[in-house]
Fold this sequence. Notes:
Blueprint: H1 20-27, H2 34-42, H3 51-61, H4 66-71, H5 74-77, H6 85-102, H7 113-124, E1 131-137, E2 143-151, H8 161-170, E3 175-181, H9 191-207, E4 210-218, E5 221-224
Parallel strand pairs: 3-4
Antiparallel strand pairs: 1-2, 1-3, 4-5
Amino acid sequence: MNTSSVSNLTIKNWAKEDQPIQRIQSLGACALTDAELLAAIIGSGTKNRSAVEVAQTLLAAFGNSLSAIGKARLDEITAIEGIGLTTACKISAAIEIGKRREKTVETPDLCTAVRLYNYMLPVMKDLQHEESYIILLNQNFHLIKRVLIGRGGITETSVDIRIAMKEAVLANATVMAFCHNHPSGSLKPSSNDDYLTKALIKACETMRIHFMDHVIVTDGHYYSYRENGKC
Length: 231
């Protein structure tokens, strides 16, 4: 876009394909320059300068660094002609959102049965009925999400294998673990537990998802199918 051709025009007077908001809608925000992104926040320029030109002046005042603008005081931003206090606050807020988004969110590494147990114990320890969860992980065994797929009585719960696999596929999971609790405190797997484990293993093999483990959770102890050589 040649900004010289739109001098003395507000954004509203530009051709739609040149308006920052329109360009975000059609091309995505990643296609815009820093000045255009700031212009989308500024909204309108002055009588003699477009919003992009105001944004370019703002960038130039801070060494063409969005980070420097983010660290600037509001009065330093409002010193730029065409930027009032409300707009300065919006710019500061937008840059802060970007900074927070860049912060890495730590996800649990659930590569062992004991880590699965410690992760699920706070969820299950006080339950008086059985609940079943699939734990969906990426290839590095980091948590993507956990999904409740069954809730039952004191001694067993019903699980639909199709729902488990659907959730895994939608989450792009490459590893799955299964956890359920025994409110009775018994660590002995039931015949239904064994059947369910075999069914999940078979389904995961079909979908090329690694079935990591089936962990039975009680208050203070756990049973791992993998540690006991059963998966």
